[in-house]
Amino acid sequence: MGTRVLSRLGPWCSRVFAVECDPNSDPVYFSLSKKPQTAHCSERQAFENIFGGAKSYSLHVCTDERFKRAMLYEELKSKFIPTLPRGCRVLDVFSFIPDVKNSLFRGFLVKGAADFPETASILDELVRRSGVSVCTYVQEEDSQQWWQHMRSKAEDGTEVTVDKYCVVPAEAPQHHPSTLNLIGNDVFYNVWDAYKVMEQCKEKMTEAYELLELVGQNLAQNKGGRFPIIAIEGLDGTGKTTLTRSLTAALNASLLRSPPECLSPWRPRFDSEPALLRRAFYALGNYITASQIATASQHAPVIVDRYWHSTAAYGIATAVSGRVENLPSPGSEVYRWPGDLLRPDLVLLLTVNPEERMRRLDLRGEEKTREEAELEANQLFRTKVEQAYKRAEDPACVVVDASPPPDQVLQQVLLLIKDKCHL
Ligand SMILES: Nc1ncnc2c1ncn2[C@@H]1O[C@H](COP(=O)(O)OP(=O)(O)O)[C@@H](O)[C@H]1O
Ligand SMILES: Nc1ccn([C@H]2C[C@H](O)[C@@H](COP(=O)(O)OP(=O)(O)O)O2)c(=O)n1
């Protein structure tokens, strides 16, 4: 497969690879060459760290078809990786064309499992699967050169062929590889893009079928009324529910939320699905909420507890790995508002320091979504969500310090609303 065309994006050997060893530092980048190249001492050391010692191999999901890609990746992550023998080291590995959108294939580099007979038979099975490629890494005797052996099934599916490439150092690309597939996989910029994802799984999930029916019934009305629409955003525990309730009473407003109540029964199901489906679920939820906002804003101001910015900020922060610096820069198209989604007049982002947020969450003591639980455990992720919120544009979020007592936060927000929405 190596020299043959792997996808519309070109052959395997033109790809760059990135192995993530530590979320707080740059990945180790390498590319492939037919001829050995001299590497600097530090580059040789980096290769030794990732390939040296116990035998290592990598698994890559490599198909252009986004639904199949998401499903295969989830299968590897939740079914294959947990079966690995204890003590194996698993690192995220990306293969991509530098700075080319939608060229990213995700995968895993596994170290210390190749000597187990069970692993060998699972790998043989994976090699024969379409959409997965399996590579092993070997060092030639008396040489410091690492080789990638890419195993793939022959056209007739019976035999396994091996393409060999030297692993050579590659420069870091301008954009972190995990940002390349955001659009259309982690964030959707029109309803039809998310709708198409849901259509692909309606056969296997009745929830998807019913969701599509609901979206279909709710798309007709998407124009705001004469009253202002105010969205309240922020991490869990920042006081959104408390504020939206008091604001609703103070302004005699309608209170809505995204995802809307009618989707609550299906939410746990979608929360346990691969990221592509989860994101499509929340994206479609925003369009149903938009239709409810359109009706409600004809009669009274509307307060919305979470809306599009939540969907985008969590989607981007989950997909972009490593450091906060890896997020797309401010001004990037990923922070734009979807053209076909009803826009709020004002978006307020509630912020409190991490200690106070934890104190509030402990006091509340409710069950959390998987992502919220991850957020709690992971300061880096939390910072990325907040940064993504702050980079959102048109409408941008107005940051509100939500650390004072509830009544003071309410007064502060009422003043803001008076100023920005003339209420
Ligand atoms: N301004 C505030 N000061 C102190 N505690 C607050 C404040 N706002 C909310 N809380 C408390 O913090 C917890 C989380 O608030 P909540 O409104 O449920 O947040 P969110 O909806 O953003 O998850 C609740 O126990 C709530 O009573
Ligand atoms: N409009 C929305 C709302 C929530 N989400 C996702 C993002 C996170 O995974 C969770 C957070 O929602 P959660 O219900 O835990 O938040 P609150 O408890 O309402 O503060 O849902 C979304 O993507 N889009």
Automatic annotation (TrEMBL):
Protein name per its UniProtKB record: UMP-CMP kinase 2, mitochondrial
Gene Ontology MF: a single term: ATP binding
GO CC terms: mitochondrion
Class of the enzyme per the UniProt entry, highest EC level: transferase
Xref: InterPro entries: P-loop_NTPase, Thymidylate_kin-like_dom, Thymidylate_kinase
Family assignment from sequence similarity: Belongs to the thymidylate kinase family.
Keywords, alphabetical: ATP-binding, Coiled coil, Kinase, Mitochondrion, Nucleotide biosynthesis, Nucleotide-binding, Pyrimidine biosynthesis, Transferase, Transit peptide
Domain of life: Eukaryota
GO BP terms in the entry: dTDP biosynthetic process; dTTP biosynthetic process; dUDP biosynthetic process
EC code(s) of this entry: 2.7.4.14, 2.7.4.9
